[in-house]
Design brief:
two-stranded antiparallel sheet, alpha/beta, 5-stranded parallel β-sheet, Rossmann fold
Length: 256
């Protein structure tokens, strides 16, 4: 008669081959989403890493379309996060632009193609603004040529003119960026200088008015001052005050 210990050992030995053949299946790998390249001058939505439209971009766009449909805005700001930043500077915004019934259609991370898509899809519908302030292109500087960025801005200007022929366009030069405008970030800034030189030619003295206020931001020992641009790209409160003061006179003229 087998002892209990021998019986247990025999049963264990029978199950070992089965256990040794059992494998744990790895979870299926997530498919790699390869997004098609976007051209700076072709309207496109902003996509997330999963290949779907960026939800923040879409939510902001839908909000702007709803604001436009209210039909109240007489002044429209279009741009990226630098423009969107006016949202946290309400005191300066209201003092400088409040009398014009302004709306801020800035979305962080936007490139020229994204602004173009937005205005082709409802953000300029239902309103008849007297003026549009446009500043866009810095987010294209890492991937697009100066020629393509300028082309993208040109298409945006042409689209604004087609959709809002009564509106005057205050086209701002893309702001300088980087700790050293001619140093480590010199490549991006040199590219943006080329962009600005090209889009300056869009100024016709009638509908389109080009204004380069980049020189208004303080530079200390060859570096952009962190007082106005804490991260050498986005503006501080004093930076927004510089912006407001720099365009105030021209904007008053365009809003008549």
């Amino acid at each position: 008669m087998k002892t209990p210990l021998l019986v247990a050992f025999a049963l264990l030995s029978l199950t070992l081959p089965v256990l040794s053949q059992t494998t744990v299946s790895a979870p299926p790998a997530k498919p790699v989403v390869v997004l098609p390249p976007q051209k700076a001058y072709v309207a496109a939505q902003k996509f997330a890493n999963d290949g779907k439209v960026n939800p923040g971009f879409l939510a902001a766009h839908e909000k702007f379309v709803a604001q436009a449909k209210e039909g109240k805005a007489q002044l429209v700001f279009l741009g990226d996060s630098i423009t969107a930043g006016w949202g946290s500077k309400s005191a300066i915004w209201n003092a400088a632009f409040g009398k014009y019934d302004p709306v801020n259609f800035g979305i962080g991370g936007d490139r020229t193609q994204h602004v173009l898509w937005r205005i082709e899809n409802g953000e300029l519908e239902g309103i008849k603004p007297k003026a549009v302030v446009l500043m866009i292109g810095t987010n294209n500087s890492g991937s697009d040529s100066a020629e393509d960025i300028a082309k993208g801005i040109t298409v945006i200007v042409d689209t604004i003119k087609a959709k809002q022929p009564q509106a005057k366009i205050l086209l701002l030069a893309v702001f300088p960026r980087g700790e050293k405008p001619t140093g480590r970030m010199g490549v991006a800034n040199e590219k943006l200088k080329q962009v600005n030189a090209t889009i300056a030619k869009l100024d016709d003295g009638k509908t389109v008015h080009f204004l380069d206020i980049g020189g208004k931001f303080p530079v200390v020992d060859g570096n952009l001052s962190a007082a106005a641009m804490p991260d050498f790209l986005h503006l501080s409160e004093s930076g927004y005050q510089i912006w407001a003061d720099a365009i105030g006179g021209k904007l008053a003229e365009l809003m008549q």
